[in-house]
Amino acid sequence: MESLLYLTELQGLRVYDLKRRMIGRVKDAAIVPLIDSIRVDRYLIGGDPAWFTIRYDQVETISLKGIYLREETLTPYHRDEYMLRVARDLLDQQIIDAHGRKVVRVTDVTFEKRRDNGSDVLCVLEVDVGLRSVFRRVVQGLMPPRWIRKLQSRIPPNSIRWEFCNILEPDPQRRLRLNISNQLLENMHPADLADIVEELSPDDREAIFAAIDSEVAADALSEIDPDIQASILESLETEKAAEILDEMSPDEAADVLAELEDETSAEILEEMETEPESEVRELMEFEEDTAGGMMTTEYVALHENATIADAIAGIRGHEELVENLNVVFLVDADEKLVGAVPVARLFLGNTSDKLKAHTYDTLIQAPVDEHRDRVTELFDKYNVLTLPVVDEEGKLAGVITADDVISVLRNR
Amino acid sequence: MITPLRWLRNLRAHILIFFSVIGPGFITAMVDNDAGGIFTYSQAGARWGYLPLWTLAPITVLLIVTQEMCSRMGAVTGKGLSDLIREEFGLRTTFIMMAALVAANLTNVMANFAGIASSLELFHISRFISVPIGALAVWLLIVKGSYERVEKIFLFATGLYVCYIISGILVKPDWKEAALYSVKPVLLLEPAYISMLIGMVGTSVAPWMQFYLQAAVVEKGIGEKDYAESRIEVVVGCIVMTVIAFFIIVSCAGAIGATHPRDINDAADAALALKPFGKYAFLLFAGGLFNASLFAACILPLSTAYTVCEGLGFESGVNARFREAPIFYGIFTLLIVVGGGVILLPNFPLVKMILVSQVINGMLLPVVLIFMVLLINKEAIMKHWTNSRGYNMVAWVSVVVLVGLTLALVGISIKDIMP
After folding, report:
1. CB contact under 8 A, B92 and A201
2. Nearest CA to A83 among A40, A121, A25, A27?
3. Please, are residues A319 and A300 in contact by the beta-carbon 8 Å criterion?
4. Predicted ipTM?
5. CB-based burial of residue A88 (10 Å sphere; 0-12 exposed, 13-18 middle, 19+ buried)?
6. Cβ distance A93 to A166 under 8 Å?
7. Shortest Cα distance from B62 to chain A (angstroms)?
8. Which DSSP helix (H) or strand (E) runs through A304?
9. Which pLDDT value is given to residue B3?
10. Structure confidence at residue B91 (pLDDT)
């Protein structure tokens, strides 16, 4: 265990020069992520009148007894935007634990001591949260470190490996300088990312959405509480907001835009790409609590005389819909809805079969102005996963899927 | 130009937002009228009649100033007060404050379980029945409920405070005197009168309120945009709280203070004195005490557990499971079990414990208030929402007044604890 050192122990450690004279105490340690994402690059030493720094390769040994140097050139400390200062920037601040998928507050940091080119080098191993590290912080400096280590061993540890930690930094310039990657967040399930974002402060939230990939942002945004959705979009640059909305399904984009103030939503619509924009505009015409307000315009519709082969070709042309696709629809020459075929039935017939032969016996549909409560009733009564919505002339206008209904029921 | 239609639509939007932000300010202010508060006001009215009414106006101002700052910090930063204190003042400071908060709130919880016991004893229900059932009900409500539902129940409980208004009217107090002394400050140079004034003002702002209010604002998702409405909610909540306090004082002044002033033993004692004024005056006063005690017995443990876990970085929240947030539920359960349990012990020195609680509260409050004003003036946290210079003057004066009176209260309490 001697190879581990806590930040609480590092802070206040004495630093000795070649003649074994004490020259100061450690105040902080800094990582320069652009050079090395885990190695402590500089030690900040408190001195009179100003702080100075030593580089990692000037160190001979580090232990609880102190830091012994092998090369004693001291550099005055001046602010360096490329430095991540462990005590100042991490301690007591919030970070995202991408592995445990939650927001945590850093109580202590554990370093691992490695031997490199005749120097003891500290590398960040874990970020500590929980009772054990709270104990360490509270008694820090009140008793010898060895006692603290002995006493704390009775408390179960709770730490997060450094590679799963995502630092929060609202300033986009500094995000770049500190080389903060968005990879961890983008790899998370959008629903988890949404939960995390809801817990953060508005500034951190906005910074994350401004930084991450628009597609991920779109997926996460549609899982977020409507009030927060609105405040995030309003804070983003119009262009970025439009980019995110382009990636969302039109019904969700319409819902989000409905939460915004008229002026802001008009500006964002202006920036959006033509195709999603016109669909979103159409959807925004409907009242929120009607079938029209619940539906999306993304569906697969084929001519009534189409065959199974046509249907398969049609689905291949809409790969973005595949995850939620349960039913393909048949329309006549006037675009009127005439039938619905469950996707699974496509596997039962021959590719040359007419789809007509495989439709549901009864066609369940709802008019665009049907009330939300009636729509949920239809889902319950007929056990459908997808419900087509038709306009006054019986033309297919959109579809409502079961997940929309679940959201409605949950929000009651 | 604003057309009337547009104006109406704007008004409607504002009212809708107001209702969507309602909750934190009201609940915090009303819980301030818990068993301890009701006793303080009842005692003031019973012993001094209408004389102390004038303190209510300054109390309202002090409450509004402190509560407004907390809700503003919550809305702007999206973080709780203990979070901000930890980020700015470090873990050790936070830890000590949290320890003091747990100790102070534990005795507050005791006082409120005592309130449950004594109010129901007026209806001949033994405390060995009322306290365990009350404790279990509180525990189940929080552990099994979601925050949205719990908040609705809390809001309903704030509505029940209307009991005091009705019982105040039933007592038929002398309204002319009540109106007169509400605006006419009376200072008697009697030690008992002065310590009563100190008690009234000193207990009006408690440390837990600041933590609870800010956390509730954050939990509700109130942001900078809804802050105008949220501020109104906080102010209205504080005013309603003093209106209730007014009616409590007036009831006791009319029933006891005006005819033969005396000291009362507890709030239930005051309810008994209302009996000659009809069954309903008594029932409502006693019922109000029960409601207030039960309500505070819910909020205080919840708020304490929440604040501590937030400040020290442990998993928290009503919506988390027991296994995910053991410390949160641990603190919560401990406060209820110990707070309710001691009431059942024979010869438990409750009055002494309440005095101790006032001492701890009194030591903690200055730190909390000073940190609050320091935090709210940091531009890095509050952006352009920092206090204006004028507001800062008001804030500092309020803090000085509160700290002074609270420390005086600490002195009085320590003198009372010593034999």
Report:
1. no
2. A40
3. no
4. 0.80
5. middle
6. no
7. 28
8. none
9. 66
10. 92
Residue A351's CB is within 10 A of a number of other CB atoms, namely 12
| d(C-alpha A339, C-alpha A165), whole Å | 51
What distance in Å separates residue A138's CA from the closest CA in chain B? Answer: 5
Nearest to A92 among B77, B86, B224 (CB): B86
Specify the pTM.
Answer: 0.83
Tell me which residues of chain B have a pLDDT lower than 50.
Answer: none
SS3 A364: coil
DSSP letters along A89-154, please?
IITTSEEEETTTTEEEE--EEEEEEEEETTEEEEEEEEEE-SHHHHHHHHHTTTS-HHHHHHHHTT
Quick count: other Cβ atoms within 10 Å of Cβ B7? 10
Which residue out of A231, A410, A412 would a mutagenesis test of the B interface target, given it has the greatest number of B Cβ atoms within 10 Å?
A: A231
Coil, strand, or helix at residue A220?
helix
> Tokens for A126?
């874990």
Distance CA B233, CA A358 (A): 60
Tokens of A212: 């991450």
Contact B308, B40 (CB under 8 A): no
Smallest Cβ–Cβ distance between B312 and the set A93, A134, A203 belongs to A134
Distance between CA A386 and CA A65 in Å, rounded? 69
Which run of H or of E encompasses A360? none
Contact between residue A301 and residue A396 where contact means Cβ atoms under 8 Å apart: yes
* Whether residue A25 has pLDDT greater than 60: yes
> How many whole angstroms separate alpha carbon A15 and alpha carbon A305?
85
Per-residue pLDDT tens over the stretch B186-220? 888 888 888 888 888 877 888 999 999 999 898 88
**pLDDT tens sequence across A141-154:** 888 888 999 999 88
Measured between beta carbons, the chain A residues lying within 8 angstroms of B77 are 201-202
Q: CB within 8 A of A68, min separation 6: which ones?
A: A16, A20, A59, A60, A61, A62
Rounded CA separation A13/A25 (Å): 5
Distance CA B175, CA B198 (A): 25
CB contact under 8 A, A134 and B79: no
Q: Assess contact for B341 and B127: CB atoms under 8 A.
A: no
The Cα of B360 is separated from the nearest Cα of chain A by a number of Å equal to 20
Q: Residue A372: which of A282, A293, A255 has the closest Cα?
A: A293
Q: Which residue of A has its CA nearest to B99?
A: A138
Average pLDDT, chain A: 88
